[in-house]
Amino acid sequence: MKPFAYVRATSLQDAAAAHGGRPGSRYLAGGTNLVDLMKLGVERPGTLVDISRLPLDGVETLPGGALRIGATARNTDVAAHPLVRSRHPVLAQALLSGASAQLRNVATTGGNLLQRTRCPYFQDVSTPCNKRDPGSGCAAREGVHRDHAVLGHSEHCIATHPSDMAVALAALDAGIELHGPEGTRTVPADAFHRLPGDRPEQDTVIGHGEIVTGVLVPAAAPGTVSLYRKARDRASYAFALASVAAVLELDRDSGRVRRVALAFGGLAHRPWRAGTAEERLTDAEPTPGNVREAVEAELAGARPLRDNAHKIALARNLAADALATLARRAQDATPGTP
Ligand SMILES: Cc1cc2nc3c(=O)[nH]c(=O)nc-3n(C[C@H](O)[C@H](O)[C@H](O)COP(=O)(O)OP(=O)(O)OC[C@H]3O[C@@H](n4cnc5c(N)ncnc54)[C@H](O)[C@@H]3O)c2cc1C
Ligand code: SF4
Question: Ligand 1 pocket check: which of 12, 26, 114 to mutate, most ligand atoms within 8 Å of Cβ?
């Protein structure tokens, strides 16, 4: 491993100064992804700025009912938090479907959002990979790509984004709080991760040196129900082949959809918010036929590769099951309890 400098930051200002926006600087949170990549030679930082002890690990309610989750809050603590569990089950379930209990005890909110793809060629420095080494090519396109993207991929990269939590945050209309040399800003979770286009090396819109300070989750309307479903090769310790985060609010008198949010994981280089399906389902009855038609319309733009067309059927069935379950729960939900 290449030698590196290690700095433990005690304040946000400290962290930003130690990072200095230098190309070789990296923030270190739980280290469950970054340290692995350093061992593989994919990451070769000159300076590691440890932010894991910054006082950014709280979960608090803001006036109006939104939740603010700090960037260094551990995945285990967020998933177990009573307000997260009661108000946004989709977020707790997405977190608990990721990694293992040991990893979740260490992994942080910011690090989870910024973890890198698990494309095996990205992790193998002996193979071409445009994400790791821009311009070198994409070994996955003609190689092993069973787990790769079916939506929004480009000739330069077909990788998927690995985070389950990010899929739930996209469906919850969360905001990502950033602090950087230009000040602070909040980016919608749905616009935080990028499609690969011709710049696959850039996973997100974060600027180098910017730090994630927290996540804002808006209050859910009373009667809103939500859940996360994930298909994977093993029951735990496995990334999504396909997953879905669904949030539903029904008009209880008419039984029609007042608001629906649907986001897919495992299908694209970023969480895939299903705008077409949402539009078709709004004001409609969530019958199996309407749901299937809406999801089919969303997935009509999928471009499967040689070996991953199965993901489309997985996504369709997960979404249909999730929405049918939520429609039943929404009819039974007591008004006034999100
Ligand atoms: C075997 C295994 C299985 C896994 N399975 C899953 C799974 O099924 N689903 C899933 O979602 N995840 C899974 N994970 C990934 C795991 O959730 C991530 O490794 C973890 O969330 C990363 O968090 P961290 O705090 O350890 O990040 P780190 O490794 O410390 O950092 C990751 C990246 O984020 C940057 N960073 C961290 N915090 C900040 C910040 N606040 N601001 C700016 N940059 C920051 C770092 O510089 C680095 O580039 C798995 C991991 C392993 C090892
Ligand atoms: S899919 Fe993306 S990450 Fe994987 S080898 Fe191709 S360029 Fe690299």
Answer: 114
